[in-house]
Amino acid sequence: MAGSFSGRTIAFEAVCGGSIPSPAATMPFFQDIPDFDVDEFIRWLGPRLVKTSGQDYAIAMHKEDPTDCSDRTEFFDWHSDGLYLPQPPRFVLLHCLDPGGGEVVTELASVDKVLNSLPLFGLRTLRRLRSHYIGHGGCFDHPILAGDNMLLASRGYISPLPGLSLDDIPSTRDIGEALAELYEELDAAAVPYEWAKGRTLIFEQRKFMHRRESRVIDRDRKLIRMWFS
Ligand SMILES: [Fe+2]
């Protein structure tokens, strides 16, 4: 698969390489674009751009008084971006301006791999649940699973989908067990992506959960974050 960007053709590659045998575990991404021009990319995207907090893109970096977890560099568990939008973006682009100390790693987990690893009962329970994101001045919910696509908040709560019959509402125990299984499989599927200046990662966020693995505050680390559909 290849993508055209301003006359240049950049190969999509598989970040997982041979480390995970399942084809479902591969992911498309751009890598090492030292002359990445964010304004040019925005023009190329046109109406596909999805604004983040009202801006064309954000600089993700540590802030002493963050408005959300993206503005920090400590551990940030599995999540989807843009959950405060009715239609969260399909793609997330991250471009490294400065890796800082290099100890803050982005991890991705293939949703297909996770779903294939879950027991059927737990999967059936997850299909009846929604994830509520708390932030951006409100609380916003999305089904955890729509087909094989996943949306998940790292901070908030879980509830049954609205409109279920009494018999279809999962028990509290079943919900707890399904979530424990989900997080176990997400953790097992984690693939690290280490940052260097100029690296650019693009992933389809309903197909890959992401998290920030970190035990430090890194005030030098800076990533461009951009969304598009
Ligand atoms: Fe994120």
Describe the model.
The protein is α+β, with helices and mostly antiparallel strands and 229 residues long. It has a single domain, classed as Clavaminate synthase-like (Double-stranded beta-helix, 4-Layer Sandwich). The protein contains 4 helices and 16 strands. Strands 3, 4, 6, 14 and 16 form a 5-stranded antiparallel beta sheet that branches. Strands 5-15-7-13 form a 4-stranded antiparallel beta sheet. Residues 1-26 have low confidence and may be disordered. It binds fe (ii) ion.
What attributes characterize this protein structure?
alpha+beta, binds fe (ii) ion, four-stranded antiparallel β-sheet, globular, 229 residues, five-stranded antiparallel β-sheet, 17% helix, 4 helices, single chain
In short:
The protein has about 230 residues and is α+β, with helices and mostly antiparallel strands.
What coarse outline follows from CA principal-axis ratios?
globular
Provide the domain count: 1
Helix share, percent: 10-25%
Number of helices: 4
List the helices and strands and how they pair.
Blueprint: E1 2-5, E2 8-11, H1 38-45, E3 49-50, E4 58-61, E5 76-79, E6 91-98, E7 105-110, H2 111-117, H3 120-126, E8 129-135, E9 138-143, E10 145-146, E11 149-150, E12 156-160, H4 172-188, E13 191-193, E14 200-204, E15 208-213, E16 222-228
Helix pairs in contact: 3-4
The structure holds fe (ii) ion.
